Amino acid sequence: MESPEQRREALSDLSREAHACVRCALAKTRTTVVFGSGDPDAELMFIGEAPGKREDEAGTPFIGAAGKLLDKLLGEIGMQRSDVFVANVLKCRPPDNRDPRPSEIEECSSYLHSQISLIAPRLICTLGNFSTKLLRADPTGITELHGSPEVVLLGGHSVRLYPVFHPAAALYKPSAVEVMRADFARIPALLKLPLPDPQEEELKAPSPAVEVKLIEEPGGQIGMF
Ligand code: SF4
After folding, report:
1. Which ligand 1 atom minimizes the distance to the CA of 90?
2. Phi, psi at residue 223, to the nearest 5°?
3. What average pLDDT does the segment 110-132 reach?
4. Strand boundaries in 168-212, DSSP class E
5. pLDDT tens-digit readout, 18-65
6. Which residues pair with 152 in a beta bridge?
7. Tell me: the pLDDT tens digits for 135-149?
8. Ligand 1 pocket residues where CB is under 6 Å
């Protein structure tokens, strides 16, 4: 078991590695790498899709209008950005904000998996479809899954996955903001819930795509990673 200092140092090393990364073609079009930011010891992690224009210029995730909505919803539950860690599936901006390509996700996902493993949050809010589908290794969409927590085993740690809408998708839809607000309202209680000891859970078949194992949530749902 690494100490908190060792984990923080490993996260800094990982950030340095990502900043020099040329594994996929996005290295040619990005302005800067957006590794992620926040508390390296956070209990709550948010995972979005990919940096947008402003994030690409600044190197910080969620700083535009969507980021402001994220901050507002966090504030309403008594939290701020510095209490959490925010990252994206892709660390570099796809040109013209197009959807991430499967090959880019495949090349980049090891950074995300390492971030999750090092930060070891208790709760991960996947923001929108891309991160939800990737971390669940399942094509079920966010409309069906938002607000439904499930326990997954990830990098040897139990973590509760909690899909919510992507704030960018909710920006111009007041009804979607209300759905997000209701989903966010459950976060403080979810952070207090105990997590099962992975050693005591029966692990089911891992996904061939990513390191996914299944464990059963007390509420009846099955989680994957
Ligand atoms: S998107 Fe990820 S894999 Fe591609 S260059 Fe950026 S950091 Fe590397």
Report:
1. 1
2. -110, 155
3. 96
4. none
5. 999 999 999 999 999 999 999 999 999 999 999 999 999 999 999 999
6. 159
7. 999 999 999 999 999
8. 18, 21-24, 26-27, 33, 90-92, 104, 107-108
196, 184, 179, 219 alpha-carbon torsion, rounded to 10°: 20
- C-alpha 149 to ligand 1 mean position (Å): 29
Q: Look at ligand 1, atom 1, and give the residue with the nearest C-alpha.
A: 92
> 157: pLDDT confidence band, cut at 50, 70 and 90?
confident
The answer to whether 91 and 21 are in contact (CB under 8 A) is yes
What is the distance between the alpha carbons of residues 63 and 84, in angstroms, rounded to a whole number? 15
Whose Cα sits closest to atom 6 in ligand 1? 92
CA dist., res. 16 & res. 10, Å (int): 10
Structure tokens at 115: 């971030």
Domain 4-187+204-224: homologous superfamily in CATH: Uracil-DNA glycosylase-like domain (3.40.470.10)
Domain range summary for the chain, segments of one domain joined by +: 4-187+204-224
Bridge partner residues of 123 (DSSP): 44, 160
